[in-house]
Request: fold
Amino acid sequence: MISIGSCARRGVPTGGPKDTIPPTLINMNPLLETVNFDSDEILLEFDEYIEARSLKQDIIINPPVKEYDFYVSRNSLVIELNEDLQENTTYTFNFREAIKDISEQNPSENIVVAFSTGPKIDSFQIQGQVRDLFTNKPADDVLVALYPEGDTLNPFEDVPMYLTKTDEEGNYAVQYIRVGTYKIFAYNDKNNNLLLDSNTESFGFESDPIALLPDDATVIPVPDSLMNTPIDSTAAQRKQLYGKTVSLQLLKQDVRPLIVQSARPNGKYFEIKTNKSLIEYKLTADGTDLTESTLQYLDSLNADLPIDTIRYLYSNFQDDQKTIRLYNTIDQDSLKTYLTARDSVGHEIQDTIYVKFTETRRNIEPFKQSFTSKSEIKNLISAKIEFGKPITKVSTDSILLSYDTLFYLPLNYEEFMQWNETLDKVSFQKQINKNQLVDSIIVHSQRRDSLAFVREQNQMRLYLDSLQSVEGLEQQLNYFEILAQTIPSLRQLRDSLNTTEDNAIRSNILSMLADTLQINENYQPKVFSKEEILSTLKPLVLYVAGGSFMSVENDSSQQIIQRFSFKVPAEYGTITGTVNTAYERFTIQLLDSKYEVVAETQPTNNSYTIELVPPGSYHIRILVDEDQNGEWERGNILENKNSEPVYFYTDEEVIDLRANWNREINLSF
Reply:
């Protein structure tokens, strides 16, 4: 029996403290865990006036009930059920934060109605946490869905049998589940249709089914956060649930079937559009369909290609790799072409396309290029240029790498420059051996100093000859001043001449000097210290002259000048540590505050070191190569295959590192 009492409510005086107390549930019908429910109405009464404007968005009903209405009357909420409920089924209505007081919008918490249309209440639950796979951040307001295993229902087409949403910490709990085995999914249901739309929504899943069976279930107490009824708290505290804990990780992966949406001319180009981004593609021209005039033009175009290949078609990606653009290199009406394309989840399509270009007054697209590199290096120069169009000609003699202005480093351009298949991206890489660099600096510095000494001697001889041959004190003084600037030992004499007013004395001294002065003919090479040079290395400079690259449409590339400074160890930090794990192959990644990879390494003898790390705040992520095939692999929901394990170092929220620090971070996973 439940007794409900009430008393007069004391009003808060105007200007008094703000009301922060949420509405309290004082009555509900049906009562929590009612069995043999056969009504079409649910009633909730609170201790103050309420509103429920967002109820349709916030309420979670398990199993889903689509047809219902609701209304609020002062302090009461009534839900009218407009469809027949399933027989012998436990239903839960979780109101989350849909019910608020009418004055200050304080949401009522943990309001759940649970009843059964049969003689017993289902008593299983699943709980856990949902996080982002690559950042480890808790996933807030994400839908967690359960589907009976072996059923034809799936998250792409069908509403789940049970569902809930995560809180701000990514935690979730689904209660009152029927005995059975289930598949579990999580996805950020942006359009609130209770379905997984993989083109716009991140998702996670567990490949193994979740068995909720009495024989192997574990009895656990209900967590405090799941105490949902104020009516009989004693009964709630006594309640035991058969539970499972399942954590899920979200990632973005478009698993829709891959299709060609269109293949037609577009201005100066022919474009093939697909419904999603591609990983790679291949276009093969039908050789029997090529005319003689097309072959002649292609021969001239292929003569200067940056890689040793023969190609009949020039194309590249556009529009986030959803469009393949072909450039007009054919002299015929159309060309039969075979397309093979693949997306990130392994979908592959093959198609036959007739490439055709049409006459148009539209101009060609502007030629774009972007250059990326790291300006500070340890011993590796790495840079990349991305072009808006395929490149057909490269002038390597205008691509230079120099040390200051002293000398140019030798480059093997076939090794220094690496091209992608479509010839619109080129990577530069050169390993720098500092000892060899220092040796070259010494040789070129000595050569430069030797040449400078010879030039200086020749110049001094010229000025001395002039001093001996000119007449007139003023001209003699001018040449002597030049000599004194070059020869330090003459500067004291120059100062004495400047203080002497007798011109005859000045002239006699200059004449005597001209007859007796000897120019030093002995070159004394400077001794260079390798350690000194290493500690004061100047930047290397990559110079790419304008026009070094020419596109398939005869556009010229822009000039690039990039300096690469050598890192000074004292200005950086180091992270070291040991690794305790049963996994045999994995990669340790250091991430910045934006979760971009700063450095990565694979441990040796259960320890690792990451050197020359800029001061800042970092995270550590571990990608496990569980199948030991040499790379970490994403999962595939269509193949019911989970991603290989990803772990984060979580002992600290962030790892702070300062200049000249050595942080020890030991990892265990």
In short: Residues 434-469 form the longest helix (36 residues). The two ends are 53 Å apart (CA to CA). Residues 1-13, 216-240 have pLDDT under 50 and may be disordered. DSSP finds nine helices and 46 strands in the chain.
